[in-house]
Design brief:
487 residues, mainly alpha, transport, Amino acid/polyamine transporter I, membrane
């Protein structure tokens, strides 16, 4: 999650329709530069963000230890979503991913809406994350002197330029950055789990005398605030998993998508079990849930309880890398989404152009420019209007999940009827698991409407939908052939 709240021939994945990828990726013009190691870490990093390192404190204060159950249930739903995406990816691994699938199975309008909405999601995310990263830098520079002591906008500019440059050098460099960003997050969580395990077994540190697994139920029970409060945390829990779908956007640039992508998707259960459920079980067994507060990282609170003063510095470094990772992913995905839209006549044609290295220069440059403008607006007018745009990122991210599930349900129906070849990576239990996931997302949206803090996301959505609807009708009237339904 972010800190503010990624054709003419059907076959088993080697063919493509229109703009889809061929086996070597030449159908789209991209280079298959992402290896198994990088894809695995992109998949892991997409499921771990500042939603865990910072946002979990608010969830713990609202629901207590029952937040663990909320993460487990939501994690199961995320696995259903990712297996649905995996089935589609093995049917046709294309860089447009769920936008392309929505266009094929649900119609050109849904492909248009999905592509532009997911693009907006990452642009807004990039703005907020690079802003957050520059704020995190103040921890290290606020008492410094000389060239290190710079205003926030300078760091925002530096980070944006560096990540933009990295995304224009090669897709492999993007993968390397994501690999090391994810490695920092994974190392931090595993380190915390090991420290907590040592406290529980050996009893060292200031928390050793009181640490016990019984803290999960002895401080007011497992549901200390009631089941209703636990339900209300489901929205922030689901938001923590936003960007887990980014691995689907890498399909057109994976060296061996038929092997690498299924392995990455199948790691979702243990990733969630270890990095979310496992980490929270260990932390809440060392520190009573009553010690956590909204806005305070549970990792920082746990370090302080253990008497480890370096906790704040460690977590600040981790959330800095998490923010940069999210911005880096935004740079990557926005260029691909704009090119996919342009190839289908749903965006300006110049977005189709690639560099000799197979990189979407125009789309990435345009998105990066908007991120810089957004950062400037955020600094100049940090008011409600900007907050409304930021809050919309949450509902737009879930729209991608809805499109994945609906596309997979339609594809499964057609493949079972023999109208399309069956995927080599079929989702177990589908389509029932996909229907269950859709129902769960519907419940989360209802809860968002009930929660006053999250309601603004639903208020912003109709305005964006109206803009897209009008734009679609205008573009379809000008070029009806490009907007015809695919057969």
């Amino acid at each position: 999650m972010t800190s503010v709240q990624v054709d003419k021939k059907h076959g088993d994945g080697s063919g493509a329709e229109g703009t889809g990828a061929t086996e070597d990726g030449s159908g789209e013009g991209y280079q298959r530069g992402l290896g198994a190691r990088q894809i695995q870490m992109i998949a892991i990093g997409g499921a771990i963000g500042t939603g865990l390192f910072l946002g979990a404190g608010k969830g713990i204060s609202k629901a207590g230890p029952s937040l663990i159950l909320a993460y487990a249930i939501a994690g199961l739903v995320i696995f259903f979503i990712m297996r649905a995406l995996g089935e589609l990816l093995m049917y046709r691994p294309v860089s447009g991913s769920f936008s392309e699938y929505a266009r094929e199975f649900l119609g050109p309008f849904f492909g248009f809406v999905t592509g532009w909405t997911y693009w907006l999601f990452w642009v807004v995310t990039g703005i907020t994350e690079v802003t957050a990263a520059s704020e995190y830098m103040q921890y290290w520079t606020k008492d410094a002197t000389g060239w290190i002591n710079q205003p926030q906008w300078v760091f925002a500019l530096i980070f944006t330029v560096i990540l933009f440059g990295a995304n224009l050098i090669s897709v492999k460099l993007f993968g390397e950055l994501e690999f090391w960003f994810s490695m920092v997050k994974v190392t931090a969580i595993i380190g915390m789990i090991l420290i907590c395990a040592g406290i529980l077994t050996i009893g060292f540190s200031d928390a050793g005398d009181t640490a016990s697994v019984s803290l999960l139920w002895s401080e007011g029970g497992f549901f200390p605030q009631g089941i209703g409060s636990t339900l209300m945390t489901l929205q922030m829990v689901m938001f923590a998993f936003l960007a887990v779908e980014l691995v689907g956007v890498t399909a057109g640039e994976s060296k061996d998508p038929k092997t690498v992508l299924p392995k990455a998707i199948n790691t979702v259960p243990w990733r969630i079990a270890v990095f979310y459920v496992g980490a929270l079980i260990m932390i809440l067994s060392v520190v009573p849930w009553t010690h956590f507060q909204p806005g305070v990282s549970p990792f920082v609170a746990a370090f302080e309880k253990m008497g480890l003063g370096v906790g704040a510095a460690i977590v600040n470094f981790v959330v800095l890398t998490a923010a940069l990772s999210s911005c880096n992913s935004g740079m990557y995905s926005t260029g691909r989404m704009l090119r996919d839209l342009a190839l289908n006549g749903q965006a300006p044609k110049f977005f189709t152009k690639l560099t000799p290295r197979g990189l979407p220069l125009a789309g990435t440059s345009f998105s990066a420019a908007l991120m810089l403008v957004g950062v400037w607006i955020n600094y100049q007018w940090p008011g409600e209007a900007f907050n409304y745009v930021v809050s919309f990122a949450t509902i737009s991210g879930m729209w991608a999940w809805i499109m994945i599930l609906c596309s997979q349900i339609k594809y499964r129906r057609m493949s079972d009827a023999g109208l399309l070849p069956k995927s080599s990576f079929r989702a177990p239990g589908a389509p029932w698991t996909s229907w269950f996931a859709l129902g769960f997302i519907g419940l989360v949206i209802v809860l968002m409407g009930i929660d006053e803090d999250a309601r603004i996301s639903l208020v912003c959505a109709p305005f964006w939908a109206l803009l897209l609807g009008v734009s679609y009708l205008v573009m379809k009237a000008r070029n009806p052939e490009k907007f015809a339904a695919k057969k």
